[in-house]
Amino acid sequence: MYIDSTNTVGNGSDAYVGLLLRDSIEPLMLKYQVDVGFWGHHHSYQRTCFVLNGTCLARPTTTTEGNTTTSYFYSTPFVAPINFVVGTAGATSSTNLQPTVPDYIEYINDSEHGYALVEIDSDKSFHLSFITETGTLRDEFWIYKN
Questions:
Q1: Best CA proximity match to 84, nearest among 58, 105, 100
Q2: Residues 96-125 pLDDT 10s
Q3: 3-class secondary-structure state, position 85
Q4: N or C, which end of the chain has less CB nearby within 10 Å?
Q5: What does the pLDDT look like over 12-26, one tens digit per residue?
Q6: Distance in angstroms (rounded) separating the CA atoms of residues 11 and 59
Q7: In this structure, are residues 86 and 3 in contact, taking their beta carbons and an 8 Å threshold?
Q8: Which of 118, 139, 137 is nearest to 127 (CA)?
Q9: What pTM did the predictor assign?
Q10: Can you tell me the distance from the alpha carbon of 141 to that of 146, in angstroms, rounded to the nearest whole number?
Q11: Residues with Cβ within 8 Å of residue 108, at least 6 apart in sequence
C-alpha cells in the first residue's frame, strides 16, 4: 500500500498497485479502525508511520541503540493504520529505493534477509520484531492500547 520504490511504470508497478490498494482498501481500514497492514512483493522490510492518504498523522517514539531501532506508540484513540512490507526472503533483489525516502517511511532495510515475528496480547498490545537471518534484531515496534 505504502512503499519506497522507483518501480512506477505500468499496471503491475509497485506505485500503481499501491495506489489501487490505497484507493480501495485504505477507506475500509479507517472505517474498521485497523491498526496494522501487512504487504509484500517488494524484497525489503519497510515500516511506515501512522499514515492516511499519504500523510503521517502520528509518529511513534523511537530510540536507536547500535543497529537496533525500537519504536512504541500508545494508540488510544485510534489514529490511522501503520503499514509493514515484509519481503526480506528476497533481500538485495529489489534495488529500486527512491533517492529520497518518502516521509511516511519510518524504517527500511533492503540489504538483509530476515523475518517478522508478531506477538499480540489480546487487545492490549501488538509487538513486531524484524530479525535478520543471523538472529539480529534490527527493528521492533509496539502498539499499546489502554
A1: 105
A2: 888 899 999 999 999 999 999 999 998 789
A3: strand
A4: C
A5: 888 899 899 999 999
A6: 31
A7: no
A8: 118
A9: 0.90
A10: 17
A11: 4, 44, 45, 46, 47, 97, 101
